[in-house]
Structure prediction request, 124 residues.
Amino acid sequence: MIEAADLILLPDFENRTRIALLDPVARHRSFTLREADRLLASLAAEGLPPLRDVVPVMHAIRSRAAMSAGSRRWLQLRRPSDGLDILDGHNLGSRRHRRTVRDVGLTSSSIAARLEESALVDRV
Prediction:
């Protein structure tokens, strides 16, 4: 499944790392949900590329987006996953579970809308 996937979306950096360990080539197609959402938002501000180019462009701007989030100090003090993880709330009580489900739903909807927008670029 990893080899066949054009885009791999994961809840957190730990799972993204696991995919990279299983298939290092898949690293450039693997993003946390929030990372993908933020990268797509950045691309949308500049004009989304055609759908066939979205994932390679997301990977290409990944480091630029991290740098624009703060200074070099930001990179030294924070883990790459800070703010990009959606924690597994299934075993943390019903309130945290509902928050996790909401976060996944909202982020996934945002990603889907931007990918749909990108697909329209292909038709123009």
Observations:
- Residues 94-123 form the longest helix (30 residues).
